[in-house]
């Protein structure tokens, strides 16, 4: 796999095969990543774009003004909150000096002992004095009728009362734009406005010169065509906006755990009510305003609300207030909800700023560049056509229907001249309408929105639109093990306790009661999970998969979770840490411990087996005696750990030590800084936890490898466990691959210099015992090597790597990043090619036909109304049909698409050139020799029949070409066509409308009825594009992109200059 990428630091994989791209670095449309792009860079491409309808073109790009307004509002809110807090501090200081205290808080009345205004003011102003006057968190919970251990009742009546008293956790959202708003925006197009004005002029002049009966045809037909374009465009855009609204709803609907009726239940973030008790862990987003009930080393990142990037330590007495929208950076705890929805600062902010549509994607920006370039060409062509037609008209070279000159100096009436000039001008403007692919960037947005829906159906929630696009460029995936490659369904299958192997692992009879009691005490307290026993005796265990597995094992050993929790109290807690790979708790037991023969504090540790084992100096045997850990015993246990790891078991060790009560700090502030002792531990047990490989993951890995995407596993697990899972998943082909640097430990990789890391990162397939920083270093090294990196992680500690990666795939994070079961990644990039190729073919053909005919014959075969119909097929209907084309497995046989590779590939250039040249050649031959070739001399109006055949053949060519565009590099263009109902429907609608236009709307569209022979000729001309496409696909294309040749020549000229 690594052979695909050169080790030369000068070579940029994404840029293709050459580095002669310096001339393009300054292009405003060449943005490698919009993920963290500066505002000035984003503003620059908007200013450089040739835009006819800004409201439509920039609809799904980042609204820079709104973004600035949002930041301004946030700054004001922060300043307001700081001012209120400062006032309370002054007030508190003054009351201490004067001895005058504020009056006691008034009762809230109603169903609860406190009112909404009072609780909101305490929470928003973070008024610790008022909270203490209520009796602290306990007094507040009593007023809210909440049990701090069991939460609220949670029945429908209770929830309804709380919502009516304190509001719901929603905020008023701005209504989506109505259909008529989209109609208005579609009509803002500059060219369409000009055409409406031209239609009005044509109508007035036509009625004046030809009378009301015939004079209204031209003007009304152009106006009707423009109106049709506006309505169809608005309908398409409206449907698209509804799709985005649904996606945004899905993104905002985060699932979180709350404690209700003594058990943990998962609910929507919208269903949180005041009085709810919510457990918080590292990586969670605080879902509402609240106060801390109890916490251990809880630290919160409040930068989203305060603007200050420092981490704030929280405790239940001095700083208990938690703000909605902030992130838990460390520790864990439980909070009591005091404010929801618009009664929180975050809710106020969200209510005042409507949902933005996210940043634009690099492809959107580049397509705006393409649209600008084509638009400039179109304007130039339109200018040439206008100039040539006007000159030919006034020099007498333009013929009328009788064959004579249309303009005769001194004889042709002024009204007729004006009418003819309006007609010429209308054709020129219509060329601009067709030439500027205003819908091209929108079509890509539609494609991405469709991709998002497809990925959601595959249980992958995409939070950034650009991720769908960037995924097609990924050259390597750094995957987590747990929950990504494995099922995350863990069970304890092996256990060593008292230095003997327990078989079965949950056989409590083999352990003495005192041994079991100290073991289960540690398990019950040293966990972020919980156990709920219903009245019927049913047990429900919650927590992370590892926690659940150990808790279930302890229950089988006889653990009474509630009794242990109430019979002893946690003095200090050290949450599991990905850097140290362990977590601990200091427990003060009410009952006397026979194990330690005194009432000392027990410090329990649990974590990675070899790391906890390294801190153990003794172990407890089956006789409850402490035995020194000799070298032989240590080696025996390490062999047992390696044996379990080799069978892909996750090994966790549980240990304990005693600590004198009088050495524990009594002051709360000192206690919060007290570090749990982690030496001289007594080993209690080592358990092996099985996490089965996810079904089908081996095929997925193989599929990625075939597509040129290297899958690397980066895990915090033991190197042997990582190796076993990697072999099972196909990331490592055989045991012979399992050596450095293919298989490496995080600490080894970390110790290398940056140059060494960059050199070996290509070869790494598995990294075991890695810290979050090791993952970040690997991602940075791979990006420096030119890779487009996708990272999967559980979000708890992978945030730096997820942020650094080109695509972050977050697994089951509660909070801002949610994506579930993301083991299969769909690569959707074919649709862009289809849309671009189809639109450019129509553009090139329509422009060339009209400009050549105008220059040589002084007339254009495609009229304004006909061109508007072609534009409708191309810009809206065709794009919609191709944008919703589902991906095929064939895509996985193709190498990743580099982000800097040319937008129009050599395959697209070949297909586009063949189709456009064919259409231009055939239709120009018809334009000049059509009357004789089609034997039309005997017809009453041969010129009109000829022009109708040209128009009909041109449209039918586009219908046939839409099939070609579905599969740009496959011979079988019909595969799966019937599965795309929208594509088939749009093709059928286009055919029916074309028949109606030609046969029944001749007066409006300047066409005449065709006999069956002319229809056969039109279909015959269109059908040739299918065999032509097959022949074209057999022609090989050079690997070096066409655009590189121009870059090389420019670079050489610059170098010689």
From TrEMBL:
Membrane-traversing stretches: 190-207, 219-238, 370-394, 424-450, 844-869, 916-936, 982-1002, 1014-1035
Positions of the UniProt region annotated as Disordered: 1-31
Sequence similarity: Belongs to the cation transport ATPase (P-type) (TC 3.A.3) family. Type IIB subfamily.
Enzyme Commission number(s): 7.2.2.10
Compartments in which it is found: Membrane
Cation-transporting P-type ATPase N-terminal domain mapped to chain residues: 136-207
Membrane topology reported for the UniProt record: Multi-pass membrane protein
Keyword Metal-binding: yes
Highest taxon of source: Eukaryota
General function of this protein: Catalyzes the hydrolysis of ATP coupled with the transport of calcium.
Protein source organism: Camelina sativa
Keyword Calcium: yes
Native organism taxonomy: Eukaryota, Viridiplantae, Streptophyta, Embryophyta, Tracheophyta
Entry protein name: Calcium-transporting ATPase
InterPro entries found in the cross-reference section: ATPase_P-typ_cation-transptr_C (IPR006068), ATPase_P-typ_cation-transptr_N (IPR004014), ATPase_P-typ_cyto_dom_N (IPR023299), ATPase_P-typ_P_site (IPR018303), ATPase_P-typ_TM_dom_sf (IPR023298), ATPase_P-typ_transduc_dom_A_sf (IPR008250), ATPase_P-type_domA (IPR059000), Ca_ATPase_N_dom (IPR024750)
Gene3D superfamilies named in the record: 1.20.5.170, Calcium-transporting ATPase, cytoplasmic domain N, Calcium-transporting ATPase, cytoplasmic transduction domain A, Calcium-transporting ATPase, transmembrane domain, HAD superfamily/HAD-like
Entry keywords, A to Z: ATP-binding, Calcium, Calcium transport, Calmodulin-binding, Ion transport, Magnesium, Membrane, Metal-binding, Nucleotide-binding, Translocase, Transmembrane, Transmembrane helix, Transport
Catalytic activity: Ca(2+)(in) + ATP + H2O = Ca(2+)(out) + ADP + phosphate + H(+)
